[in-house]
Write a structure and sequence with these properties.
Number of domains: 1
CATH class: Alpha Beta
Structural class: alpha/beta
Shape: globular
Order of helices and strands: HEHEHEHEHEHEHEHEH
Distance between the termini: 24 Å
CATH superfamily: Alanine racemase
Strand content: 15-25%
């Protein structure tokens, strides 16, 4: 059940989605990008099935979860709803090896492959199910000790290793920017794009997906090349405010 009044909350979701789409389009056009190249993933980790269903009804199709068990539960709920057959869920949080089975077959894309051991484990278990799992390698571009992911020094080796794994379909890269500093975020996002461009030249792989940008910095991420922005509070929370933008709700 939804915690929000259906009519009022859907009106909020619809207005907020239109505003977000406009901001994404404006950011893309500022740098000569096609806005249709950017996908908005609505991070539903803090809301229930009712809010997800309402978000789906007003146009969202891509959702993000950071806990494997909750991802599996919501995917099961969606599959039992004949009106939400094309909803897709992304695994965006840290993934432990003992939780992999809850994600395989349920996640459209695993954003957070942060170690060689995890990539190998995903591959092995994917092969037992006869499929390759679409994945992104998480890169710690900012170098912050609090963030997980491959270092800039290790990413070449990680890409080479992952390319050889039959049970992993490497789609691109993901990163998280330092919080509260748009200049640092821009440097982080541009660093991810430049890294991807070098890897494309070296490996010949397209690596077309760049997952970066969250509620407070997604416009900067779009300007620097992001193809997937992961937006949670700004999508679902009517009380959310941003220092960079004043909402009229």
């Amino acid at each position: 059940m939804s915690e929000h009044n259906t009519v009022e909350y859907q009106a909020f979701l619809r207005q907020r989605r239109a505003e977000l789409q406009e901001r994404i389009e404006d950011a893309a056009r500022r740098v000569g990008r096609d806005p249709s190249d950017i996908t908005l993933v609505a991070v539903s980790k803090t809301v229930g099935d009712g809010e997800v269903e309402q978000a789906y009804q007003i146009g969202y199709r891509e959702f993000g979860e950071n806990r494997p068990q909750e991802l599996k539960r919501k995917v099961t709920s969606v599959r039992n709803n004949p009106d939400m057959k094309d909803a897709r869920f992304h695994m965006i949080g840290n993934l432990q090896k003992n939780k992999i089975n809850q994600v395989l077959g349920n996640a459209t894309l695993v954003h957070s492959v942060s170690s060689a051991h995890l990539a190998q484990a995903i591959s092995q278990r994917s092969l037992t199910k006869g499929r390759a799992t679409p994945c992104l390698l998480e890169v710690n571009v900012s170098g912050e000790a609090s963030k997980s992911g491959f270092s800039l020094q290790d990413i070449d080796e990680a890409v080479d290793m992952t390319m050889k794994l039959e049970g992993v379909s490497l789609q691109g890269l993901m990163t998280m920017a330092p919080a509260g500093d748009l200049d640092a975020a821009r440097s982080c996002f541009s660093g991810l794009r430049e890294l991807r461009d070098k890897l494309v030249i070296r490996t010949g792989m397209p690596l077309s997906v760049l997952s970066c940008g969250m509620s407070d910095d997604f416009e900067v991420a779009v300007e620097e090349g992001s193809t997937l922005v992961r937006l949670g509070r700004i999508v679902f929370d009517p009380t959310y405010t941003s220092q960079q933008h004043k909402w009229i709700v």
